[in-house]
Amino acid sequence: MAVAALLTGCGGSGESAAEANPAPAPPPQSSPYSVATAAAQLPAPGVRLPASPLPTSTHTVRNAAELAAALVNGSRRIVCVPGSLFDQPVSVRVSDIVLDMAGCTIDDSVGARILTVGADRVQVNGGSWNGGFAIGAHSDIHINHASFTGVNPAGSLNEVMHAHRVLIERSSLVQRSNNVVLWSQQATDLVIANSRVVQETAGLQATIRTHGAKVVVMDSYVANPTHHTLRAHADGAMASPYVVWTRNVLVGGRIQAWGGDGDPLQVTQLWVTGNTAHWNATGFHVSHPSVTTAVLSGNRVYDSTGAFTWPTGPGWTVENNHAGPYAAPAPWNHAP
Hints:
Helices cover 4% and strands 41% of the residues. It has helices at residues 35-40, 64-70, and strands spanning 57-61, 76-80, 85-86, 90-92, 97-100, 105-106, 113-117, 122-125, 128-130, 132-135, 139-144, 147-150, 158-161, 164-169, 172-175, 182-185, 188-193, 196-199, 208-211, 214-218, 221-224, 230-233, 242-246, 249-253, 255-257, 267-273, 276-281, 285-286, 291-297, 300-303, 317-319, 322-325. The strands form 3 sheets. Strands 1-2-5-8-11-14-17-20-23-26-29-31 form a 12-stranded parallel β-sheet, with helices on one face. The longest helix has 7 residues, at 64-70. It starts with 34 loop residues before the first helix and ends in an 11-residue tail after the last strand. The relative contact order is 0.16. Mean pLDDT is 89; it is low at 1-28.
């Protein structure tokens, strides 16, 4: 296997002269932010977004018992009364559910697994969730404008496992224990857009880590104080077929599309485009043949090494990148 590059040199293919001051964070798209518009601009073959649930009735809930009772049957829109506290984890096992949880808190005082989705066509709108979520082998899941904060090492990470068409947008995923913030394995059409994904605890866990997944992270703020912000790997014999990291603000840890597990083929196609990176932690690992095809274009990197070099590989496109000394990022908020 080729040894991945820990890139700390200066100069390099496709880079301009170093810039003394960081550019501002990429401006949001026209308001309101449209995931459909952003997805339509992705390189082929692109991704498919979730189909919407089809509720036929509406139910209002004020506490955990009422919510559990409302989730016995599918095809429902369930609306919480703002200000309500739900003190038990939520499990969705029936399809065509819309959970409108804006203004409500879901907190079982444990801070581990707070939401489990085991059904198709489920949309979660809003809510302050104390813990992480788990999405199983189902399709068409949409998390919108929700906040998940993990505080317990036992199960507080957010998981998307063997699922299809999963969208996380306008949301906040924060990890305060030494866990991965978002972990995905063999997911197809996983999209994280216009969201804040942050690891707050120093340790050895990446912020977003995907294995054998078709995944897009775009227009988001991704941070980690000591480890990788973005990582993509194979899943056993299955390489990650399509990985797009575009127009993000990346803070702290660098990125990795490579692995030391003995599998030389990690990512089939990788796009790293239009990102603004403020890097001062962990190594940068993107190498051939671990990545067979790559487009590394239009990125701005402000790196604590004082300079930065993008790698190259056969058939790769490396162009219009800019590098400069480290500077702290500007404040970031998701687009409306």
